[in-house]
Design brief:
Blueprint lengths: L19 H11 L3 H8 L5 H14 L9 E3 L8 E3 L3 H18 L13 H7 L7 E3 L5 E3 L13
Antiparallel strand pairs: 1-2, 3-4
Length: about 160
Amino acid sequence: PCTQSASLSTLPHGTIFNRKDLYTQHLRRMHIPASLKKQVKQRKPSPEWEARERACQDQAKRTRCDLPSHMRCPAFGCTAHFEGPNAWDDRMEHVAKHLEKAVTGSERPIEFGGPHDQTLIDWATRADIAIIERGEKGNWRLCNPLKSSNGPRAG
C-alpha cells in the first residue's frame, strides 16, 4: 500500500463511484421511492424520479484533481511542450505520433515516467494528486489515493 495520502480526511464516507452510470444504477437500486419502483422497473417515464436522479447526479459529482496545465513531450530529443487547460490532451495526441513511429522502429521507444518525462512525474507525485510513489528499490509504483486502509472503496 502507498504511504502517501491525498487528504484522506477530506474523502467522503461510503462508496466512491468513478463512473456516472454506476452511480445511476446504485440510485435506481437503492434509493428509488417504493411508490415509483414498479413504474421505473417497467421503463415507464417518471419525470419526478428523473428530475430527482439528475439532481442527485449533479450534487454527487466531484473533481478530485485537475489535469496538468504544463507538460513536455517524453520522446527522446523532442522539445515540444504544452500549456494551458488542454495540455494533457494535446500532449497525448502529440505523443501518439511518436508511438506510431516507435512501433515502426523509426524512433526510439518512449518511456512514460522515465528520465525524459519529469513534468509527468512532478504532477503525479504532488501531494494533492499522489497517484505514484517511489518503491523500496527506486521504481515507481501506482497508488490509489481514493482508498484508505479502512475508508471508502473506489467503485
